[in-house]
Amino acid sequence: MSFWSSQTLRSRLPSLIEPFSDDQIESASYQLCLGEEVYISPLPDTPLKERKKIPLSEKETVPIPPGQFAFLITSEQIEVPKNAIAFISIKFKFKSKGLINVSGLHVDPGYRGKLIFAVYNAGPLHLHIGRGDRVFSIWYADLDQDDEKPRQKIGYDLIPPDLMNGPDLVSSLPYLKTRLDDLEKKVEEYSIRQAILFGIATPILLVFVKIIVDIFMQPLLNMIKSSLTIY
């Protein structure tokens, strides 16, 4: 296996990547841009009507909240020949801010279509990305011959609904923080109620104790005291 050099990319990619731009070749890789839509995972209590893809106009940005997942699609249609394989990654500029690629790291021989990246914002801040930003890198490498089982399934053109129909991300950091805040609030409210109840109940309880002592215990104590009196 040998990786394609910048020169090879320049000669071969115009027929494999659409749209192609020569200035997006960098260090034996091609820089892919964010496309026209993204999908950011909702919290479990998000209404269904709000669980939808976010369309992006040219140069429009969108924030990925800390602790949330997202699907990002490339603006370019790419093709991998049957005698090659491609490897993909997120550029360090975005990795250094906490964006992690949690999807695959390669593209099958024979694939045609846009690429979808599943990402996770592991950073502490909202990460803003914009349509047209060079977010991804792709490298091509030769196989020793045409692969006998190349990718046959049609590639992506848009982010498909089945990716958005997955289970709610109940373990995401914002959701866990929300649950922790709710739990702390309930504990605080319970403590306040207990303090109020104790403050009210204690004087009442003391009154009942005094009554019991006066009715039952005091006569008994008087009898004991009388029996011990020495004449």
Describe this structure in words.
The chain is an alpha+beta fold and 231 residues long. It has 4 helices and 14 strands. The strands form 3 sheets. Strands 2, 3, 4, 6, 8, 9, 10, 12 and 14 form a 9-stranded antiparallel β-sheet that branches. Strands 1-7-11 form a 3-stranded antiparallel β-sheet, with no helix packed on it. Strands 5-13 form a two-stranded antiparallel ribbon. A hairpin with a 2-residue loop joins strand 2 and strand 3. The longest helix is centred in the C-terminal third of the chain and has 55 residues. It is rod-shaped, with a radius of gyration of 34 Å. It starts with 5 loop residues before the first helix and ends with a helix. The relative contact order is 0.17.
Give the helices and strands, then pairings.
Elements: H1 6-12, E1 17-18, E2 25-26, E3 29-40, E4 54-55, E5 61-64, E6 69-74, E7 77-79, E8 84-90, H2 92-95, E9 99-101, E10 106-107, E11 112-113, E12 116-121, E13 127-130, E14 134-142, H3 161-164, H4 173-227
Pfam families: DCD (PF22769)
Transmembrane segments: 195-217
Keywords: Hydrolase, Membrane, Nucleotide metabolism, Transmembrane, Transmembrane helix
